[in-house]
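We emphasize that the prediction below concerns an isolated chain of 136 residues; any contacts that depend on oligomerization or on bound cofactors are therefore not represented. The input was used exactly as deposited, without trimming of termini.
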Amino acid sequence: ENMHQGLMEEALSKFKEVKTAYASFYSAEIYRKLADEEKAANASSIQVSGAYLNYLTEARESLYLTLDRLKNEPSGHPLNANIGDMVEQVENLIHESEGSEETAAGGAANGGVNRLMDHLSSTPRSAANSLLRRPE
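Result of the prediction step, given as a token string:
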């Protein structure tokens, strides 16, 4: 287990030294795998671990770096075929895990606050916003 973790960390540090689309892509793959292992290790926990969210965030950053690096590559680069789907998957996992954190923490995140404000206000928000806009 520790050796496995050490090998992943070593691979990540090596990939950071290489400034190619594949290097950042494979870094994202490693972070995604670490996130999956973290989630499996804490499967009995209701709340998502901070480490899981950190790994997913690192995976997302690596994928965005890959996208930036792909701008300098020919459009037929093999990574272009599925990089968008991978970014979307990681974004969805982050969104889901943030949602479960809010639920575990009691739940009145932005959605709840917005609904509450709608109930407390006698003027619907869309009407209030249109009153605040300057005429063109």
